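If your schedule permits, I should be very grateful for your opinion on a structural question. Kindly check, if you would, that the fold set down in the tokens agrees with what the sequence suggests. Thank you for your consideration; the sequence and its tokens are set out here:
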Amino acid sequence: MKSLYITSVENYSGKTATCLALGKRFQADGYQVGYLKPLSLQPWRIKGKIADEDAVFVQEVLGLSDLPYELSPVVVSKEFLKAHLQDKTDNDLMEKVKAVCQKAGEGKDILLLEGGGSLREGHAVNLPTPLVARSLSSHVLVIVKYHSEVGVLDDILSAKSRLEDLMIGAFINRVPDDAREFIDKLAIPYLEQHGVPIFGQIPHTSTLAALTVQELKDHLNATVLTERAGLNGLVENLTIGAMTAEVALHRFREYPNKAVITGGDRTDIQLAALETSTTCLVLTGNLHPSPMVIRQAEEFQVAVLMVPTNTMETIEAIDQVCGKSRLGLPAKLKKFEELFSQHIDIDRLYQSLSFKR
């Protein structure tokens, strides 16, 4: 049994999506697949037990027989951390991880291990990614989310310096169109010359980066004021309605499938937003809009959310969840699988694992 540790240098880079895309590809090619998230900072209660939110989702999609809480042996909740710092927990967590990995890998050809939010995680409980990967004799695949030209080089080379021979390669995610030529012609050749295999680059796609209205509602603890507008709509852009209606209308036309954040008393802005491609209105200050706005929103199938916070507080709250969108919608998962298949050199990745397709 082989194990592949999928990690990244920062949060929300696409680790869970990659586990799912690779897991389904391995399964389609006839391999028995297991999954584990050795360390989790995302406690999720299911059937009275603590599990990891991502692990629950992966277990469902890949159809694994393991129970969700069996797929995340160390989940660091506030209570767990306090007990650990006071020496009231099992101090040899590495042995626990090894035992669970061995069980999860029984009868499997490959065990996918999902890393934490970044390569910094795990030191507080003696489970940093490099140590865990080496203890489990895992190959490591690194995902780097594109931010800038120099940043993508530094991120990949930094990962290589930490992981050394464990790292079989990397791929770059969310690459904007204007950066793709730089990645292809300069970055990848440079990194390859420095001993880092690059399996490909996945272009930025607004659909995948989008939040659902439901995710916004849950994160903002919002009240839904519309009855007929669904909550599965995708929010690909965010705009703030804090200008005149005329200026706002011009701006709103530039951004499709957007959420417009504005005061609940700004009827002019709300109606201007409804004249353009808008997924939802987020109305701040706990102020109910005009009934005319609700009627028109329901006619256009635009959800209206009301939140108690002011506009600035609401924007700050949304910033915390941007980039964290889950692949819970089948269409989003299917889109990522398509992009992964088109842009990642699967044959080379298989060769790195000594697998045959």
Q: What stands out?
A: The chain is about 40% helix and 20% strand.
